[in-house]
Amino acid sequence: MAYSKCARTFAVWFLQKNTYHKDISLNTKQKNTFHFGNYTIIHLSWKVKGDVMPNQEVVDLRNRILGALIQNVRNQARVTVQECAAALGISEGAFAAYERGSASISLPELELLARFIEVPLSVFRETSLSGSRDTRLPNAEIFLPLRHRIVGARLRQVRQEARRTQQDLADILECSAEQIADYEYGRRSVPFAELEIVGRALTVSLEVFFDKESEVGQWHKSQDQFERFKKLSPEMRDFVLRPINESYLALAMKLSDMPAGALRAIAEGLLEITY
Question: Which of 174, 175, 185, 267 is the one with CA 20 to 30 A from 240?
Answer without folding.
Answer: 267
